[in-house]
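Researcher: I'm preparing a figure for a lab meeting and need a structural model of a single chain. I don't have an experimental structure, so a prediction will have to do for now. The sequence is pasted below. Please return the structure as tokens so I can convert it later.
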Amino acid sequence: MIDTTLLRSTLFSDFIGKRLDETQRSVIEQYADDLDFEPIDNLMISSGAWDHAVAMEVLPQLVFAHPDILQKHPQTSLYYRGMALLSRKQVAREATSVTDWENGTREAPVRRDAALRVARIYNTVISSIIEGSTDWTLDNGYRNILAATGITLDGMFRNKIGDMAEALIKSRIVSWLKNKKLIVTEEPQDRRYRLPNDTFMQYGSEPDISFLRRENLIATIEIKGGTDPAGALERFGAMTKSFEETPRGCVNFLIAGVITPEMQARLDDIGVVKVYLLDELAKDGKRWDHFTNEVFHHTIRVV
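Model: Understood. Here is the structure written out token by token.
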């Protein structure tokens, strides 16, 4: 069973301990080039929010996003997005993806038009937040950043669960086979195991687990353990792409972290996938027994 409580605590503690938002705030504070915010409406800054920031006598770039900073230091998007309480998906939908901006993996320079679109999205929301509060301060903005960090961490956690789910299932299958003395030979470095009846089990990706007999693919298992409903259809798409490449007669299994109603409807349309929920396999011994019996007795027939 995945210890989700421990994993969540460790992940959150490690991420928050780095305080990446403070690093980016320092970059913004030390930005030495002149910044021209006029006309403010071109950057989607409301006059009321601008006047409030001026009255606070703080650097305007600590409150409002400027495309010059975003172009030269794309990772500062993390700071401004937090101020605006926006998720990465919202920014991508309204402007452009900022994922590689914020994680520092972007190789190509940020285009001016993209930086401007992102700055406008941030400033529109930040202006609304400021005007909606009678006593807004930078501390309010910093609290928003922490709240947005929590949202980001929750998404990271759900994805981490997906990674751990694959390792968990693969490990449990090997342990189960060894207990049943069904592994004839193994090649751990190649993640390949020989089973009875001239059958081989191969660990890989797309599919995560393959079963072959005399080099013919007879069954596959896809493990999509992510628990974020928002990404369910994306995971479903990856799974169906993998299953579509299997030959006629191949039996396909799906182990999913979550099944949304839309995903279930599409699975019903396919009608050739045997589905199990990760949480059930991790916690319910009877459900695990049903799964192993279905795979190794009824499907590949090595038991």
